[in-house]
Design a protein that fits this description.
alpha+beta, GTP Cyclohydrolase I, Chain A, domain 1, 3 domains, three-stranded antiparallel beta sheet, two-stranded antiparallel ribbon, 8 helices, about 55% helix, about 15% strand
């Protein structure tokens, strides 16, 4: 199927993908722009996965103060080169992440960052809640596993649904930028301040 130059240009502007990739995506999806975007996203995320183990020593620290000055975020995001760290795309990503943290209050970057004692305490609370249902032990463990997944989704930044696009997680959102910029990108750390609230 032949695709118009206009459609290729439009898709390129919307996704930041290369001309040949846009053309192929349109050919594969019968010229449907929305399906072509999805096609490129899937391809990009798959390609991005290969870069996830590369070292990230550059990046930037960004801050975000929510209107009203009651919530603020300080965030460090790393990439592989200073060149990428200075791009508008990278700055947009970091700022979006800071705004998301302000809105959604994650406590950890990923589930691996949750201290073992916090995780054990949460499991014990969930077990006790599950026991009160009167179900057998093997069912209780399954209930705990399911509720623990929910705990991760609520408290771990990478597993939260992106506030600007709830159809994707923060991890998927970062992967679209890994694909676009061609470098590994990693959220190193963040701190969220809320007036009058103190984290223990």
């Amino acid at each position: 199927m032949s695709v118009s130059t206009e459609d290729v240009k439009k898709l390129r502007e919307m996704t930041g993908a290369g001309v040949l990739d846009c053309k192929k995506a349109l050919q594969e999806t019968g010229g449907d722009i929305e399906k072509a975007i999805e096609f490129l996203r899937k391809k990009g995320i798959a390609g991005a996965s290969k870069k996830l183990h590369r070292e990230t020593l550059e990046g930037m620290v960004d801050s975000y103060i929510h209107p009203g000055n009651r919530v603020g975020v300080l965030l460090e995001v790393n990439c592989e080169t200073d060149f990428v760290a200075r791009t508008d795309d990278f700055k947009t990503l970091v700022h979006d992440l800071a705004m998301h943290i302000a809105a959604m209050s994650p406590r950890y970057v990923s589930r691996e960052d949750i201290p073992a004692d916090v995780l054990e305490k949460e499991k014990e609370i969930l077990r006790e809640q599950a026991r009160q249902t009167g179900k057998p032990d093997h069912v209780i463990e399954k209930i705990v596993e399911g509720r623990l997944e929910k705990f991760f989704e609520e408290n771990c930044l990478l597993e939260q649904n992106f506030v600007k696009n709830p159809d994707m997680t923060i991890e998927d959102y970062i992967k679209t930028y890994i694909a676009k910029l061609g470098e590994n990108i990693r959220v190193k750390r963040f701190i969220r301040f809320e007036l009058g609230k103190y984290e223990s």
